[in-house]
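Here is my example:
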Amino acid sequence: MSTEDIIIRLFLIVDDRIGPVKKRDDAKLYPSEIVTIGLLFALKGGKFSPFYRWLSANYRHWFPDLPEHSRLTRLLRDYSPFAERFLDDPSFFTVIDTFGIELIHPRREGRSKQQIGKKGISNGRWIVGIKLAWLINREGRVVGWQWDTAEAPDNTFRGLATMYDGQTIALTDNGFREADVPQKNLKYCARGTWNERFTIETNLSWVTEVFNAKKMYHRATEHLTARLDYMSALLNCLLEITGGVRSLAQFSI
């Protein structure tokens, strides 16, 4: 699928989901345009400055009133709550798991007082960054998400699943166990059982292979949260475009 087709399809989904939201009199972009740009940034990945140059050089004819760099970053931050409208409903069985995202090289840990990430283990190696937790339904769409620093244990994210107690049974590994805490709607699965859990491994692999987000470069919590908001919404939008087909190889831009 061409980049132009991807942008058009994303904009149509966004415009339909957001609905008629009035643009401010002094605004240059409509909310649906801002959210579409946020989804494109989540899809392109990497740093924001190269993304802005790419968008401005190639698609300014579609966004003729594109604000300057710093103004656009603030708009993406302020309009990111709209991305919650793209989250899906839970199914009878859901799956929850975490994924480590690097923010800085471990040698740079502690050099800045504004450092967001902490040191923790992800996929068998040390990183300085965060953990992203996704709760997905049987179609692979994101129902809810949460992030914390990389040293947080997986059971920190139990609340993401237990908030849907009575609506779904969340399949997870033993890392979500917590002593003397009721199990509620969590189903702890031993290694090699409940192959349904592997659906989330596919989703999390897209963070690296499609969204280029194994490493992020944000230094402010609100901008990092906005990026994860758009990334979770983007996954659901792409699955809507493919009709639920779990192959996103055609969405490299």
